[in-house]
Design goal:
The complex is a heterodimer. By secondary structure, chain A is of the alpha+beta class. Chain A has 5 helices and 8 strands. In chain A, the strands form 2 sheets. A 5-stranded mixed barrel of chain A has the order 4-5-6-8-7. Classes of the chains: A alpha+beta, B mainly alpha.
Chain lengths: 238, 326
Protein backbone atom coordinates (compact mmCIF):
# COMPACT_ATOMS: atom_id res chain seq x y z
CA UNK A 1 0.00 0.00 0.00
CA UNK A 2 1.48 3.36 -0.92
CA UNK A 3 1.32 6.27 1.48
CA UNK A 4 -1.43 7.99 -0.48
CA UNK A 5 -3.70 4.93 -0.20
CA UNK A 6 -2.81 4.71 3.48
CA UNK A 7 -4.03 8.28 3.92
CA UNK A 8 -7.26 7.47 2.04
CA UNK A 9 -7.88 4.43 4.28
CA UNK A 10 -7.37 6.51 7.42
CA UNK A 11 -9.59 9.24 5.99
CA UNK A 12 -12.38 6.70 5.45
CA UNK A 13 -12.02 5.07 8.88
CA UNK A 14 -11.88 8.45 10.63
CA UNK A 15 -14.81 9.63 8.52
CA UNK A 16 -16.83 6.54 9.46
CA UNK A 17 -16.14 7.19 13.15
CA UNK A 18 -17.13 10.86 12.78
CA UNK A 19 -20.32 9.91 10.96
CA UNK A 20 -21.24 7.47 13.75
CA UNK A 21 -20.33 9.86 16.56
CA UNK A 22 -22.67 12.51 15.18
CA UNK A 23 -25.71 10.22 14.96
CA UNK A 24 -27.58 7.84 17.25
CA UNK A 25 -26.31 4.93 15.14
CA UNK A 26 -23.30 4.98 17.48
CA UNK A 27 -25.49 3.67 20.30
CA UNK A 28 -26.06 0.40 18.45
CA UNK A 29 -22.44 -0.46 19.14
CA UNK A 30 -21.09 1.35 22.22
CA UNK A 31 -22.20 3.24 25.32
CA UNK A 32 -23.20 6.93 25.03
CA UNK A 33 -20.18 7.92 27.18
CA UNK A 34 -17.89 6.76 24.36
CA UNK A 35 -19.25 9.47 22.03
CA UNK A 36 -16.72 12.28 22.71
CA UNK A 37 -13.82 9.84 22.50
CA UNK A 38 -15.01 8.34 19.21
CA UNK A 39 -15.50 11.88 17.92
CA UNK A 40 -11.99 12.85 18.98
CA UNK A 41 -10.43 9.71 17.49
CA UNK A 42 -12.34 10.20 14.21
CA UNK A 43 -11.36 13.86 14.00
CA UNK A 44 -7.73 12.99 14.75
CA UNK A 45 -7.62 10.35 12.01
CA UNK A 46 -9.27 12.62 9.45
CA UNK A 47 -6.85 15.40 10.43
CA UNK A 48 -3.84 13.13 10.08
CA UNK A 49 -5.09 11.83 6.71
CA UNK A 50 -5.76 15.32 5.31
CA UNK A 51 -2.38 16.57 6.56
CA UNK A 52 -0.72 13.59 4.86
CA UNK A 53 -2.56 14.10 1.56
CA UNK A 54 -1.65 17.81 1.49
CA UNK A 55 1.99 17.13 2.37
CA UNK A 56 2.17 14.42 -0.29
CA UNK A 57 0.63 16.68 -2.93
CA UNK A 58 3.22 19.34 -2.08
CA UNK A 59 6.19 16.97 -2.08
CA UNK A 60 5.08 15.34 -5.33
CA UNK A 61 6.15 18.59 -6.97
CA UNK A 62 9.60 17.86 -5.60
CA UNK A 63 11.30 14.50 -5.86
CA UNK A 64 11.04 13.15 -2.34
CA UNK A 65 9.07 9.95 -1.83
CA UNK A 66 7.82 8.98 1.58
CA UNK A 67 6.57 5.56 0.68
CA UNK A 68 6.95 3.48 3.73
CA UNK A 69 9.81 1.13 4.16
CA UNK A 70 10.14 -1.27 7.05
CA UNK A 71 13.49 -2.52 8.29
CA UNK A 72 13.81 -5.36 10.74
CA UNK A 73 16.57 -5.83 13.32
CA UNK A 74 18.79 -7.59 10.79
CA UNK A 75 18.50 -4.79 8.28
CA UNK A 76 16.22 -6.76 5.93
CA UNK A 77 13.78 -4.60 4.06
CA UNK A 78 10.13 -5.60 3.99
CA UNK A 79 7.43 -4.33 1.69
CA UNK A 80 5.15 -1.63 2.97
CA UNK A 81 2.54 -2.73 5.48
CA UNK A 82 -0.29 -4.76 4.05
CA UNK A 83 -2.29 -4.85 7.30
CA UNK A 84 -3.59 -1.37 6.51
CA UNK A 85 -5.92 -2.84 3.89
CA UNK A 86 -7.89 -4.56 6.62
CA UNK A 87 -9.00 -1.21 7.99
CA UNK A 88 -11.44 -1.12 5.09
CA UNK A 89 -13.38 -3.99 6.72
CA UNK A 90 -14.81 -1.95 9.63
CA UNK A 91 -15.39 0.96 7.23
CA UNK A 92 -17.55 -1.28 5.06
CA UNK A 93 -19.23 -2.73 8.16
CA UNK A 94 -20.09 0.72 9.54
CA UNK A 95 -20.96 2.66 6.39
CA UNK A 96 -22.14 0.04 3.89
CA UNK A 97 -23.63 -2.81 5.94
CA UNK A 98 -24.62 -0.68 8.98
CA UNK A 99 -25.81 -3.66 11.05
CA UNK A 100 -28.67 -3.17 13.53
CA UNK A 101 -28.36 -3.32 17.32
CA UNK A 102 -28.15 -6.81 18.81
CA UNK A 103 -31.52 -8.35 19.50
CA UNK A 104 -33.28 -11.61 20.20
CA UNK A 105 -30.75 -13.75 18.34
CA UNK A 106 -27.94 -12.70 20.69
CA UNK A 107 -30.13 -12.55 23.81
CA UNK A 108 -31.19 -16.19 23.26
CA UNK A 109 -27.59 -17.35 23.10
CA UNK A 110 -26.35 -15.66 26.26
CA UNK A 111 -26.95 -16.75 29.87
CA UNK A 112 -30.04 -14.98 31.21
CA UNK A 113 -30.17 -12.56 34.10
CA UNK A 114 -26.89 -13.32 35.81
CA UNK A 115 -26.29 -9.58 36.15
CA UNK A 116 -25.91 -8.12 39.63
CA UNK A 117 -27.21 -4.60 40.32
CA UNK A 118 -24.50 -2.15 41.47
CA UNK A 119 -26.46 -1.37 44.65
CA UNK A 120 -28.97 -3.26 46.77
CA UNK A 121 -30.57 0.00 47.94
CA UNK A 122 -33.71 0.55 45.91
CA UNK A 123 -35.37 3.96 46.44
CA UNK A 124 -39.18 4.02 46.31
CA UNK A 125 -40.60 4.38 42.78
CA UNK A 126 -42.15 7.76 41.99
CA UNK A 127 -43.72 9.27 38.89
CA UNK A 128 -46.92 9.32 36.93
CA UNK A 129 -48.86 6.07 36.62
CA UNK A 130 -47.77 3.81 34.97
CA UNK A 131 -44.21 4.28 36.22
CA UNK A 132 -41.54 3.84 33.53
CA UNK A 133 -38.94 1.39 34.82
CA UNK A 134 -35.99 0.03 32.87
CA UNK A 135 -35.98 -3.71 32.48
CA UNK A 136 -32.65 -3.86 34.31
CA UNK A 137 -34.05 -1.91 37.26
CA UNK A 138 -37.20 -4.04 37.28
CA UNK A 139 -35.10 -7.18 37.39
CA UNK A 140 -32.82 -5.79 40.12
CA UNK A 141 -35.75 -4.75 42.33
CA UNK A 142 -37.47 -8.08 41.77
CA UNK A 143 -34.52 -10.43 42.20
CA UNK A 144 -32.45 -8.56 44.80
CA UNK A 145 -35.05 -6.40 46.58
CA UNK A 146 -37.67 -9.17 46.85
CA UNK A 147 -39.96 -7.00 44.72
CA UNK A 148 -40.94 -4.89 47.74
CA UNK A 149 -40.50 -1.57 45.94
CA UNK A 150 -42.49 -2.83 42.95
CA UNK A 151 -45.73 -3.95 44.62
CA UNK A 152 -48.60 -1.47 44.58
CA UNK A 153 -47.39 0.23 41.40
CA UNK A 154 -48.36 -0.07 37.78
CA UNK A 155 -45.11 -0.56 35.86
CA UNK A 156 -44.29 0.21 32.22
CA UNK A 157 -41.42 -1.77 30.65
CA UNK A 158 -39.99 -1.30 27.16
CA UNK A 159 -38.00 -4.01 25.43
CA UNK A 160 -37.93 -6.37 22.48
CA UNK A 161 -39.82 -9.66 22.26
CA UNK A 162 -37.58 -12.64 22.82
CA UNK A 163 -40.18 -15.24 21.98
CA UNK A 164 -43.53 -16.71 23.04
CA UNK A 165 -43.94 -18.80 26.19
CA UNK A 166 -46.84 -20.44 27.96
CA UNK A 167 -49.30 -17.71 29.03
CA UNK A 168 -47.57 -14.86 27.22
CA UNK A 169 -44.11 -13.99 25.96
CA UNK A 170 -40.62 -13.10 27.12
CA UNK A 171 -39.52 -9.47 27.01
CA UNK A 172 -35.78 -8.74 26.89
CA UNK A 173 -33.24 -5.98 26.82
CA UNK A 174 -29.48 -6.30 26.37
CA UNK A 175 -27.21 -4.61 28.91
CA UNK A 176 -23.80 -3.41 27.75
CA UNK A 177 -20.99 -2.04 29.88
CA UNK A 178 -18.51 -1.05 27.18
CA UNK A 179 -19.55 -2.22 23.73
CA UNK A 180 -21.92 -4.70 22.10
CA UNK A 181 -19.31 -7.47 22.47
CA UNK A 182 -20.02 -7.63 26.21
CA UNK A 183 -23.85 -7.61 25.93
CA UNK A 184 -25.81 -9.55 28.55
CA UNK A 185 -29.57 -10.04 28.48
CA UNK A 186 -32.13 -9.21 31.15
CA UNK A 187 -35.43 -10.97 30.65
CA UNK A 188 -38.92 -10.57 32.08
CA UNK A 189 -41.82 -12.92 31.64
CA UNK A 190 -44.95 -11.09 30.43
CA UNK A 191 -48.26 -12.79 31.22
CA UNK A 192 -50.96 -11.73 28.83
CA UNK A 193 -53.92 -13.14 26.98
CA UNK A 194 -53.06 -11.09 23.90
CA UNK A 195 -51.33 -12.89 21.04
CA UNK A 196 -47.54 -12.64 21.51
CA UNK A 197 -45.96 -10.11 19.10
CA UNK A 198 -43.37 -11.50 16.73
CA UNK A 199 -39.75 -11.90 17.75
CA UNK A 200 -37.57 -8.76 17.89
CA UNK A 201 -40.50 -6.30 17.81
CA UNK A 202 -40.23 -3.49 20.36
CA UNK A 203 -43.16 -3.17 22.73
CA UNK A 204 -44.12 -1.27 25.87
CA UNK A 205 -45.91 -3.42 28.42
CA UNK A 206 -47.81 -2.05 31.41
CA UNK A 207 -48.84 -4.22 34.32
CA UNK A 208 -48.03 -5.34 37.84
CA UNK A 209 -45.15 -7.33 39.30
CA UNK A 210 -46.26 -10.91 39.98
CA UNK A 211 -43.28 -12.62 41.64
CA UNK A 212 -40.54 -14.64 40.02
CA UNK A 213 -41.27 -17.12 37.25
CA UNK A 214 -41.95 -20.66 38.47
CA UNK A 215 -39.98 -21.94 35.47
CA UNK A 216 -36.86 -19.84 36.18
CA UNK A 217 -36.34 -18.18 39.56
CA UNK A 218 -34.15 -15.46 38.01
CA UNK A 219 -36.89 -14.19 35.69
CA UNK A 220 -39.42 -11.71 37.15
CA UNK A 221 -43.02 -11.82 35.96
CA UNK A 222 -45.16 -8.87 34.87
CA UNK A 223 -48.91 -9.50 34.69
CA UNK A 224 -49.78 -7.27 31.75
CA UNK A 225 -52.76 -4.96 31.26
CA UNK A 226 -51.66 -3.56 27.94
CA UNK A 227 -49.12 -4.45 25.29
CA UNK A 228 -48.46 -1.67 22.76
CA UNK A 229 -45.95 -1.48 19.91
CA UNK A 230 -43.05 0.91 20.64
CA UNK A 231 -40.25 2.51 18.68
CA UNK A 232 -36.79 1.16 19.29
CA UNK A 233 -35.24 3.66 21.75
CA UNK A 234 -32.28 5.78 20.59
CA UNK A 235 -30.15 3.78 22.99
CA UNK A 236 -31.36 0.22 22.46
CA UNK A 237 -29.32 -1.13 25.41
CA UNK A 238 -29.95 -0.81 29.13
CA UNK B 1 3.92 -20.15 -16.52
CA UNK B 2 6.33 -17.36 -17.37
CA UNK B 3 3.63 -15.83 -19.52
CA UNK B 4 1.27 -15.72 -16.51
CA UNK B 5 4.03 -14.23 -14.37
CA UNK B 6 4.68 -11.59 -17.03
CA UNK B 7 1.03 -10.63 -17.18
CA UNK B 8 0.79 -10.48 -13.38
CA UNK B 9 3.86 -8.30 -13.29
CA UNK B 10 2.48 -6.00 -16.00
CA UNK B 11 -0.81 -5.71 -14.15
CA UNK B 12 0.99 -5.02 -10.91
CA UNK B 13 2.96 -2.20 -12.50
CA UNK B 14 -0.17 -0.68 -14.00
CA UNK B 15 -2.47 -1.00 -11.01
CA UNK B 16 -1.50 1.16 -8.08
CA UNK B 17 -2.78 0.52 -4.57
CA UNK B 18 -5.05 3.52 -4.99
CA UNK B 19 -6.81 1.72 -7.86
CA UNK B 20 -7.17 -1.41 -5.76
CA UNK B 21 -8.57 0.75 -2.97
CA UNK B 22 -11.31 2.11 -5.24
CA UNK B 23 -12.06 -1.38 -6.61
CA UNK B 24 -12.52 -2.82 -3.10
CA UNK B 25 -14.97 -0.07 -2.17
CA UNK B 26 -16.91 -0.56 -5.39
CA UNK B 27 -17.15 -4.32 -4.81
CA UNK B 28 -18.30 -3.70 -1.23
CA UNK B 29 -21.10 -1.39 -2.32
CA UNK B 30 -22.26 -3.77 -5.06
CA UNK B 31 -22.10 -6.70 -2.63
CA UNK B 32 -24.25 -4.79 -0.17
CA UNK B 33 -27.14 -4.89 -2.61
CA UNK B 34 -26.41 -8.29 -4.15
CA UNK B 35 -26.06 -9.96 -0.74
CA UNK B 36 -28.78 -8.00 1.05
CA UNK B 37 -30.53 -11.15 2.32
CA UNK B 38 -27.35 -12.75 3.61
CA UNK B 39 -26.34 -9.65 5.52
CA UNK B 40 -29.65 -9.45 7.34
CA UNK B 41 -29.49 -13.09 8.53
CA UNK B 42 -29.50 -12.81 12.35
CA UNK B 43 -26.17 -14.58 12.83
CA UNK B 44 -24.39 -12.53 10.14
CA UNK B 45 -25.94 -9.29 11.41
CA UNK B 46 -24.93 -10.12 15.01
CA UNK B 47 -21.39 -10.90 13.85
CA UNK B 48 -21.14 -7.61 11.98
CA UNK B 49 -22.50 -5.65 14.95
CA UNK B 50 -20.04 -7.21 17.40
CA UNK B 51 -17.17 -6.79 14.93
CA UNK B 52 -17.99 -3.12 14.32
CA UNK B 53 -18.51 -2.56 18.07
CA UNK B 54 -15.05 -3.88 18.97
CA UNK B 55 -13.41 -1.75 16.26
CA UNK B 56 -15.31 1.39 17.33
CA UNK B 57 -14.72 0.81 21.03
CA UNK B 58 -11.01 0.25 20.50
CA UNK B 59 -10.45 3.16 18.09
CA UNK B 60 -10.04 5.93 20.72
CA UNK B 61 -7.66 3.78 22.78
CA UNK B 62 -5.72 2.90 19.67
CA UNK B 63 -5.50 6.59 18.73
CA UNK B 64 -4.25 7.45 22.22
CA UNK B 65 -1.68 4.65 22.00
CA UNK B 66 -0.45 5.97 18.63
CA UNK B 67 -0.17 9.54 19.97
CA UNK B 68 1.91 8.28 22.90
CA UNK B 69 4.08 5.93 20.83
CA UNK B 70 4.72 8.64 18.22
CA UNK B 71 5.67 11.09 20.95
CA UNK B 72 8.02 8.49 22.44
CA UNK B 73 9.52 7.72 19.04
CA UNK B 74 10.01 11.26 17.77
CA UNK B 75 9.97 13.76 20.61
CA UNK B 76 11.39 11.95 23.64
CA UNK B 77 15.16 11.51 23.39
CA UNK B 78 16.45 7.95 24.03
CA UNK B 79 18.57 9.28 26.93
CA UNK B 80 15.35 9.96 28.83
CA UNK B 81 14.63 6.27 29.32
CA UNK B 82 18.20 5.55 30.28
CA UNK B 83 17.89 8.12 33.04
CA UNK B 84 14.32 7.29 34.09
CA UNK B 85 14.76 3.52 34.37
CA UNK B 86 17.32 1.68 36.53
CA UNK B 87 20.19 0.37 34.41
CA UNK B 88 19.76 -3.21 35.58
CA UNK B 89 16.76 -4.75 33.76
CA UNK B 90 15.90 -6.78 36.88
CA UNK B 91 15.27 -3.50 38.73
CA UNK B 92 13.75 -1.72 35.72
CA UNK B 93 11.01 -4.37 35.43
CA UNK B 94 9.12 -3.34 38.62
CA UNK B 95 9.55 0.37 37.81
CA UNK B 96 8.09 -0.13 34.32
CA UNK B 97 5.35 -2.42 35.69
CA UNK B 98 4.16 0.16 38.20
CA UNK B 99 4.53 2.98 35.64
CA UNK B 100 2.10 1.08 33.40
CA UNK B 101 -0.57 1.55 36.04
CA UNK B 102 -0.95 5.25 35.33
CA UNK B 103 -1.84 4.89 31.63
CA UNK B 104 -5.64 4.79 31.51
CA UNK B 105 -6.07 2.72 28.38
CA UNK B 106 -7.05 -0.73 27.28
CA UNK B 107 -4.76 -3.32 25.79
CA UNK B 108 -4.93 -2.20 22.15
CA UNK B 109 -3.15 1.07 22.97
CA UNK B 110 -0.30 -0.43 24.92
CA UNK B 111 1.08 -2.61 22.09
CA UNK B 112 2.37 0.32 19.97
CA UNK B 113 3.63 2.08 23.11
CA UNK B 114 5.61 -0.99 24.23
CA UNK B 115 7.02 -1.35 20.70
CA UNK B 116 8.12 2.30 20.76
CA UNK B 117 9.78 1.73 24.15
CA UNK B 118 11.76 -1.23 22.78
CA UNK B 119 12.86 0.72 19.71
CA UNK B 120 14.01 3.48 22.03
CA UNK B 121 16.40 1.09 23.73
CA UNK B 122 14.34 0.06 26.75
CA UNK B 123 15.26 -3.55 27.63
CA UNK B 124 12.72 -6.22 26.60
CA UNK B 125 11.91 -7.23 30.19
CA UNK B 126 10.77 -3.79 31.39
CA UNK B 127 9.02 -3.15 28.04
CA UNK B 128 6.84 -6.26 28.31
CA UNK B 129 6.19 -5.57 32.02
CA UNK B 130 4.76 -2.23 30.88
CA UNK B 131 2.85 -3.93 28.04
CA UNK B 132 1.16 -6.29 30.53
CA UNK B 133 0.52 -3.93 33.43
CA UNK B 134 -0.75 -0.84 31.53
CA UNK B 135 -4.14 -2.29 30.51
CA UNK B 136 -4.62 -4.34 33.68
CA UNK B 137 -4.01 -2.20 36.76
CA UNK B 138 -4.84 1.36 35.71
CA UNK B 139 -7.38 3.29 37.83
CA UNK B 140 -10.22 3.02 35.29
CA UNK B 141 -9.99 -0.76 35.25
CA UNK B 142 -9.79 -1.01 39.06
CA UNK B 143 -12.82 1.26 39.53
CA UNK B 144 -14.76 -0.82 36.98
CA UNK B 145 -13.82 -3.95 38.94
CA UNK B 146 -15.05 -2.51 42.23
CA UNK B 147 -18.35 -1.53 40.57
CA UNK B 148 -18.76 -5.00 39.05
CA UNK B 149 -18.08 -6.85 42.32
CA UNK B 150 -20.01 -4.80 44.90
CA UNK B 151 -20.06 -7.64 47.42
CA UNK B 152 -16.35 -8.44 47.13
CA UNK B 153 -14.15 -5.35 47.53
CA UNK B 154 -11.15 -7.66 47.99
CA UNK B 155 -11.53 -8.55 44.28
CA UNK B 156 -9.98 -5.18 43.38
CA UNK B 157 -6.90 -5.93 45.49
CA UNK B 158 -6.73 -9.48 44.15
CA UNK B 159 -6.87 -8.22 40.57
CA UNK B 160 -4.19 -5.62 41.21
CA UNK B 161 -1.86 -8.15 42.84
CA UNK B 162 -2.47 -10.89 40.24
CA UNK B 163 -2.02 -8.58 37.24
CA UNK B 164 1.01 -6.73 38.58
CA UNK B 165 2.48 -10.09 39.63
CA UNK B 166 1.96 -11.45 36.11
CA UNK B 167 3.56 -8.36 34.57
CA UNK B 168 6.63 -8.60 36.82
CA UNK B 169 7.11 -12.36 36.58
CA UNK B 170 6.72 -12.38 32.79
CA UNK B 171 8.96 -9.28 32.57
CA UNK B 172 11.75 -10.99 34.50
CA UNK B 173 11.33 -14.28 32.61
CA UNK B 174 11.25 -12.55 29.25
CA UNK B 175 14.44 -10.67 30.04
CA UNK B 176 16.07 -14.14 30.32
CA UNK B 177 14.27 -16.27 27.73
CA UNK B 178 13.42 -13.61 25.15
CA UNK B 179 17.08 -12.94 24.35
CA UNK B 180 16.95 -14.15 20.75
CA UNK B 181 13.54 -12.64 19.95
CA UNK B 182 13.96 -9.99 17.25
CA UNK B 183 13.29 -6.33 17.97
CA UNK B 184 9.94 -5.01 16.74
CA UNK B 185 9.94 -4.08 13.07
CA UNK B 186 11.16 -0.57 12.66
CA UNK B 187 9.47 1.89 10.36
CA UNK B 188 11.98 4.33 8.93
CA UNK B 189 10.78 7.78 7.89
CA UNK B 190 13.14 9.62 5.56
CA UNK B 191 16.02 11.07 7.54
CA UNK B 192 15.93 14.47 5.91
CA UNK B 193 12.32 15.05 7.00
CA UNK B 194 11.70 17.47 9.86
CA UNK B 195 10.51 16.45 13.29
CA UNK B 196 6.80 17.04 12.68
CA UNK B 197 7.08 15.50 9.26
CA UNK B 198 8.60 12.37 10.85
CA UNK B 199 5.86 12.37 13.49
CA UNK B 200 3.16 12.53 10.81
CA UNK B 201 4.65 9.75 8.69
CA UNK B 202 5.27 7.52 11.72
CA UNK B 203 1.80 8.09 13.14
CA UNK B 204 0.01 7.39 9.83
CA UNK B 205 2.02 4.24 9.24
CA UNK B 206 1.67 2.90 12.80
CA UNK B 207 -2.02 3.73 12.95
CA UNK B 208 -2.85 1.96 9.68
CA UNK B 209 -0.75 -1.02 10.76
CA UNK B 210 -2.15 -1.30 14.30
CA UNK B 211 -5.76 -0.70 13.20
CA UNK B 212 -5.41 -3.39 10.52
CA UNK B 213 -4.14 -5.89 13.10
CA UNK B 214 -6.89 -4.92 15.50
CA UNK B 215 -9.36 -5.78 12.74
CA UNK B 216 -8.00 -9.36 12.60
CA UNK B 217 -8.52 -9.72 16.34
CA UNK B 218 -11.95 -8.11 16.27
CA UNK B 219 -13.07 -10.51 13.54
CA UNK B 220 -11.82 -13.51 15.53
CA UNK B 221 -13.43 -12.34 18.74
CA UNK B 222 -16.73 -11.58 16.97
CA UNK B 223 -16.73 -15.06 15.42
CA UNK B 224 -16.19 -16.76 18.78
CA UNK B 225 -18.69 -14.43 20.42
CA UNK B 226 -21.34 -15.51 17.95
CA UNK B 227 -20.30 -19.18 17.68
CA UNK B 228 -19.66 -20.32 21.29
CA UNK B 229 -22.95 -21.08 23.06
CA UNK B 230 -22.39 -19.59 26.50
CA UNK B 231 -24.52 -22.40 28.00
CA UNK B 232 -21.57 -24.78 27.58
CA UNK B 233 -19.92 -23.01 30.46
CA UNK B 234 -22.58 -24.13 32.92
CA UNK B 235 -21.17 -27.65 32.95
CA UNK B 236 -17.62 -26.58 33.67
CA UNK B 237 -18.20 -24.30 36.65
CA UNK B 238 -18.22 -26.93 39.38
CA UNK B 239 -14.60 -28.11 39.35
CA UNK B 240 -12.02 -25.62 40.72
CA UNK B 241 -9.17 -26.48 38.32
CA UNK B 242 -11.44 -26.88 35.30
CA UNK B 243 -13.00 -23.51 36.19
CA UNK B 244 -9.65 -21.69 36.14
CA UNK B 245 -8.64 -23.35 32.86
CA UNK B 246 -12.02 -22.70 31.22
CA UNK B 247 -12.19 -19.02 32.16
CA UNK B 248 -8.53 -18.43 31.23
CA UNK B 249 -9.21 -19.80 27.75
CA UNK B 250 -12.50 -17.92 27.54
CA UNK B 251 -10.65 -14.66 28.31
CA UNK B 252 -8.30 -15.39 25.40
CA UNK B 253 -11.14 -16.17 22.99
CA UNK B 254 -13.65 -13.46 23.90
CA UNK B 255 -11.09 -10.60 23.83
CA UNK B 256 -13.26 -8.21 25.80
CA UNK B 257 -11.73 -4.80 26.52
CA UNK B 258 -10.01 -4.68 29.93
CA UNK B 259 -12.39 -1.93 31.01
CA UNK B 260 -15.42 -4.18 30.48
CA UNK B 261 -14.13 -7.61 31.43
CA UNK B 262 -14.95 -7.21 35.14
CA UNK B 263 -18.66 -7.01 34.28
CA UNK B 264 -18.48 -10.19 32.25
CA UNK B 265 -16.54 -11.90 35.03
CA UNK B 266 -19.12 -10.77 37.60
CA UNK B 267 -21.87 -12.39 35.54
CA UNK B 268 -20.15 -15.78 35.37
CA UNK B 269 -21.59 -16.69 38.76
CA UNK B 270 -21.39 -20.45 38.17
CA UNK B 271 -17.60 -20.16 38.57
CA UNK B 272 -15.52 -19.64 41.72
CA UNK B 273 -14.10 -16.19 42.49
CA UNK B 274 -10.60 -17.57 41.83
CA UNK B 275 -11.62 -18.75 38.35
CA UNK B 276 -13.09 -15.31 37.67
CA UNK B 277 -9.87 -13.70 38.91
CA UNK B 278 -8.00 -15.83 36.35
CA UNK B 279 -10.36 -14.42 33.67
CA UNK B 280 -9.45 -10.86 34.78
CA UNK B 281 -5.71 -11.58 34.96
CA UNK B 282 -5.49 -13.34 31.59
CA UNK B 283 -7.77 -11.09 29.50
CA UNK B 284 -5.71 -7.88 29.46
CA UNK B 285 -2.45 -9.85 29.08
CA UNK B 286 -3.28 -12.22 26.23
CA UNK B 287 -6.29 -12.54 23.95
CA UNK B 288 -6.91 -13.15 20.25
CA UNK B 289 -6.84 -9.50 19.26
CA UNK B 290 -3.63 -8.89 21.24
CA UNK B 291 -2.00 -11.95 19.67
CA UNK B 292 -2.85 -10.60 16.20
CA UNK B 293 -1.38 -7.20 17.11
CA UNK B 294 1.73 -8.77 18.64
CA UNK B 295 2.36 -10.98 15.59
CA UNK B 296 2.18 -7.90 13.38
CA UNK B 297 4.20 -5.63 15.66
CA UNK B 298 6.81 -7.88 17.23
CA UNK B 299 6.85 -10.76 14.73
CA UNK B 300 5.56 -14.32 14.80
CA UNK B 301 8.52 -15.70 16.75
CA UNK B 302 7.81 -13.30 19.58
CA UNK B 303 4.10 -14.06 19.74
CA UNK B 304 4.35 -17.88 19.58
CA UNK B 305 6.41 -17.91 22.76
CA UNK B 306 5.16 -14.83 24.55
CA UNK B 307 1.43 -15.63 24.37
CA UNK B 308 1.63 -19.15 25.94
CA UNK B 309 4.12 -17.95 28.57
CA UNK B 310 1.82 -15.09 29.56
CA UNK B 311 -1.29 -17.28 29.57
CA UNK B 312 0.26 -19.90 31.87
CA UNK B 313 1.88 -17.33 34.16
CA UNK B 314 -1.34 -15.32 34.54
CA UNK B 315 -3.47 -18.42 35.23
CA UNK B 316 -1.05 -19.79 37.87
CA UNK B 317 -0.49 -16.44 39.59
CA UNK B 318 -4.25 -15.77 39.68
CA UNK B 319 -4.83 -19.21 41.25
CA UNK B 320 -2.23 -18.53 43.95
CA UNK B 321 -3.52 -15.01 44.66
CA UNK B 322 -7.10 -16.36 44.69
CA UNK B 323 -6.18 -19.10 47.16
CA UNK B 324 -4.61 -16.55 49.51
CA UNK B 325 -6.97 -13.58 49.20
CA UNK B 326 -10.39 -14.83 48.09
Amino acid sequence: MNSRTQAFVLLLFGGALLRLATTDALLRYVLPVARPWVLLAGAGMVGLAVWSLIAQARSRAGTRSEDSEVVDAHGHHHGASRAGWLVLAPVVAILVVAPPALGAYSAKRLPVSSIKPPSRQFPALTGADPIQVSLLDFYGRAAFGAGQTLTGHRIALTGFVLGPEVGGFQLARLVITCCAADAQPVVASVQTTAAPPSRDTWVTVTGRFAGMSPADATVPVLRADTVTPARQPANPYD
Amino acid sequence: MTRVAEITEAVRRRVSSTDAFCAILLVAVVARFALGDVLTTPSVAAWTTVFAAICIQAAPFLALGIVLSTALAVFVPPEFFRRALPTRPALAVPVAGVAGGVLPGCECGSVPVAAALMRRGVARGPAVAFLLSAPAINPVVLVATSVAFPGHPVMVLARFVASLGTALVVGWLWQRVGRDAPLPLRFVPPDEAGRWERARITAAHDLAQAAGLLVVGAATAATLNVVIPRAWLDHLGGNAVAGVITLSLLAVLLAVCSEADAFIAASLTQFSLTARLAFLAVGPAVDVKLIAMQVGTFGRRFATRFAPLTLVAAAIIASVVGAVLL
